[in-house]
Amino acid sequence: MNIYLMVGAPGAGKGTQAALLAERLGAVHVASGDLLRDAVRLDSPLGREAKRFMDRGALVPDDVVIGIIEERLSRPDAQRGVILDGFPRTRLQAEELDRSLAQRGERVIAVMYVGVREEELLRRLSGRWLCRAAGHPYHDVSHPPRVAGVCDIDGSELYQRDDDQPATVRARLEQQLPPMYDVLDHYRAQGVLFTVDGEGGIEAVNDALVRAIAPPVQPSRR
Ligand code: AMP
Q1: Does the beta carbon of 164 lie inside 6 Å of ligand 1?
Q2: Ligand 1 test: best mutation among 17, 60, 63, 128, most atoms within 8 Å of CB?
Q3: Counting atoms of ligand 1 from 1, which one is nearest the CA of 176?
Q4: Checking CA distances to 14, which of 76, 124, 135, 139 falls within 20 to 30 Å?
Q5: Which residues of 168-205 are buried (b: 16+ CB within 10 A; e: fewer)?
Q6: Are the C-beta atoms of 111 and 194 separated by less than 8 Å?
């Protein structure tokens, strides 16, 4: 099972990039935030526990997140390869992931860091809207829908995530950036970290990611 990690601050566009990359590589896109939001919607005990943290912009406790990720990675489709989006978010999560992969003789192939400046993150997050049907993303300034409040693709209603409200956005960045830097240090030390500039257009960033993990084969000299 090939595992690639997509790391980035909230608002760096890692979800969009992970989905595109998964399609290009024929891999499965697994987003910890989506799995947690599914649990919240189902109102399971785990979902109720997670919601208390998510509403404040705080990280959900490591053991809760590690449990849902391990379960997801054990499903058969993960054998196609996985782009993990939003996990690990702390050093402990990274160590647990490494340990559980090592038990199966596997390891993280590459870690892709989508870098975006903090002021740009604030601007992006505060204007973000998602559609109810499929989570298609829009933005007040950079990518407004054709009709206000309606998804261009499937016509469903657009909404703002509770944790995309301006006050929570700041809290999310303050609480989530320091542990994210720990995760980057952890994988930099393993020599598997690739950094791409996340402030370009969606396709340019994606092309940079593909180049980072699959360097062109040098033609052999004859
Ligand atoms: P995201 O959709 O990735 O921005 O995640 C939404 C929220 O879910 C985050 O603000 C956290 O509260 C929680 N969350 C997602 N992934 C993790 C993780 N790996 N560890 C802890 N909390 C997480």
Answers
A1: no
A2: 60
A3: 10
A4: 76
A5: bbeebbeebeebbeebbebbeeeebbeebebeeeeeeb
A6: yes
**Block mean pLDDT (10 aa), the chain, length 222:** 93 92 93 94 93 91 94 93 96 96 91 94 88 92 92 96 82 91 97 94 92 68 56
């590589």: which residue's tokens? 25
The single residue of 14, 51, 72, 124 carrying the catalytic annotation is 14
- For residue 77, the model assigns a pLDDT of 95
Q: Are 33 and 19 in contact (CB under 8 A)?
A: no
For 210, other C-beta atoms within 10 Å of its C-beta total: 15
Do the beta carbons of residue 17 and residue 6 sit within 8 Å? Answer: yes
pTM: 0.84
Q: What is the pLDDT of residue 218?
A: 57
- Nearest Cα to Cα of residue 144 among 129, 123, 124, 154: 129
